[in-house]
């Protein structure tokens, strides 16, 4: 092997460690002097640079500490599927509410629209109702012929994550009753779905 320029080291080529294994020659070597870890007396290995660097006279100011492990759980979703976008004819939003099986949940009648009495309801009023768990919506271009994506993919789904709401009332999903309000995003009218 030819000598290396001053201050460079050559890694050993080949399997299994390649340049991340032991080093053949030390800095400024003429190719005859091995690069040796003076603490262990063995050939210098790349891992000597990272493991217990105090032994070679180097101490890091600070090191990134690993984050503690987090508990993960699958989310609880309320899924509305399939929804035919073309049949909808207008953008709608769903608002999901949870109630314990032994509790009664009723939507205030003044929020519900009827054909004879349309009422415009703000989103802030709907999220303030007791048991609010989440919302989802379908936005699309309300054009007479639809958009190319709506024609190619007329069916879609809306998912509402209710995990946090279940935690807030400390109850199993099997022990709740879902209630759903549907809001017309153009007119602000609201109807009870379930």
Structure in words:
It contains 4 helices and 8 strands; from the N terminus they run E-E-E-H-E-H-E-H-E-H-E-E. The radius of gyration is 33 Å and the shape is elongated. The termini are far apart. Strands 5-4-7-8 form a 4-stranded antiparallel beta sheet, with helices on one face. It is α+β, with helices and mostly antiparallel strands. A hairpin with a 5-residue loop joins strand 7 (176-184) and strand 8 (190-192). The chain has helices at residues 85-88, 123-127, 148-152, 163-169, and strands at residues 10-11, 23-25, 77-84, 92-100, 132-138, 155-161, 176-184, 190-192.
List the helices and strands and how they pair.
Elements: E1 10-11, E2 23-25, E3 77-84, H1 85-88, E4 92-100, H2 123-127, E5 132-138, H3 148-152, E6 155-161, H4 163-169, E7 176-184, E8 190-192
Short key terms for the protein model shown above:
single chain, 194 residues, alpha+beta, two-stranded antiparallel ribbon
Report, as a whole number of angstroms, the end-to-end distance. Answer: 80 Å
Class by alpha and beta content: alpha+beta
H/E element sequence? EEEHEHEHEHEE
General form:
elongated
Q: Biggest β-sheet, characterized?
A: 4 strands, antiparallel
Mean pLDDT: 80
* Poorly predicted tracts of residues: none
**Number of contiguous helices:** 4
Strand order of the largest sheet: 5-4-7-8
Radius of gyration: 33 Å
Strand share of the residues? 15-25%
Percent helix: 10-25%
């Amino acid at each position: 092997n030819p000598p290396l320029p001053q201050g460079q080291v050559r890694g050993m080529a080949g399997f299994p460690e390649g340049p991340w294994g032991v080093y053949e020659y030390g800095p400024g070597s003429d190719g005859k002097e091995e690069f040796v870890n003076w603490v262990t007396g063995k050939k210098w290995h790349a891992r000597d640079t990272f493991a217990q660097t105090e032994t070679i006279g180097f101490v890091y100011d600070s090191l990134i500490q690993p984050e503690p492990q987090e508990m993960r759980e699958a989310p609880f979703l309320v899924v509305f599927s399939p929804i035919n976008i073309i049949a909808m004819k207008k953008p709608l939003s769903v608002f999901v509410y949870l109630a314990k099986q032994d509790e009664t949940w009723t939507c205030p009648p003044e929020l519900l629209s009827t054909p004879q009495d349309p009422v415009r309801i703000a989103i802030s009023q709907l999220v303030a109702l007791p048991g609010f768990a989440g919302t989802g919506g379908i936005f699309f271009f309300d054009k007479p012929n639809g958009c190319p994506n709506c024609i190619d993919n007329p069916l879609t789904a809306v998912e509402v994550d209710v995990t946090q709401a279940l935690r807030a009332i400390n109850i199993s999903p099997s022990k709740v009753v879902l209630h759903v309000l549907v809001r017309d995003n153009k007119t602000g009218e609201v109807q009870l779905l379930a």
